[in-house]
Amino acid sequence: MSKQSRRSLLMNAASAAVAVTGVTVVEPAVAQTTGKLEKKSYPVKKNADNASAAPPLFSSAVSYGNLLFLAGVGAHFKGTIEEHTKHVLDELEKNLIGAGSSMEKVLKVNVYLNDINDWEKMNTVYAGRWGKVPPVRTTIAPAGGIPGNSLVEIDLIAYI
């Protein structure tokens, strides 16, 4: 079966699904305009102090089509779990906005707690930051803790 035939078959099935469920199927905007999905990085901006620094070990944010993947963010200062959680969520929100997304467009969140006993306190700050439909979430406390002495680290997947 050719690519065009498969695409037609899928689009016909999608149209039938829309007729039955009322849910609209939308292809990624990048694929519609270029015919090809592309990986894009959103690197940390260099300033005069680090202009000649080596490339980073990993990207803070990478998109593929309309999906956006943000690296884990921690809080590397002395403070409470509530202060650390607020700082991490604020930083993630800045990164999302910088890449053309928002907290409301987050689909999946991974939360890493240095101490699982901080789960309830972390949730008091975490709740309500995601719009009407919160993302799915996994929360774990790694046996070795979180690098850099952060009490919490969060990474996520969103759409643009």
Topology pattern, helix = H, strand = E: HHEEEHEHEE
Give the count of structural domains: 2
CATH topology of the largest domain: 60s Ribosomal Protein L30, Chain: A
Uncertain segments are: 20-31
On the 0-100 scale, what is the average pLDDT?
82
Radius of gyration: 19 Å
What is the number of helical segments per DSSP (H or I, 4+ residues)?
4
Architecture per CATH nomenclature, i.e. the level-2 architecture of the largest domain: 2-Layer Sandwich
The overall strand count is 6
Output the strand order for the largest sheet: 1-2-3-6-4-5
**SS class:** alpha+beta
* N-to-C span: 32 Å
3D shape = globular
In terms of DSSP E residues, the strand content is: 15-25%
- CATH H-tier superfamily of the largest domain: RutC-like
Structure report:
One of its GO terms (cellular component) is cytosol. It comes from Bryocella elongata. This is Enamine deaminase RidA, house cleaning of reactive enamine intermediates, YjgF/YER057c/UK114 family. This protein is α+β, with helices and mostly antiparallel strands. It has two domains: 28 residues; 122 residues, RutC-like (60s Ribosomal Protein L30, Chain: A, 2-Layer Sandwich), CATH 3.30.1330. Helices cover 32% and strands 22% of the residues. Strands 1-2-3-6-4-5 form a six-stranded mixed beta sheet, with helices on one face. Helix 3 packs across helix 4.
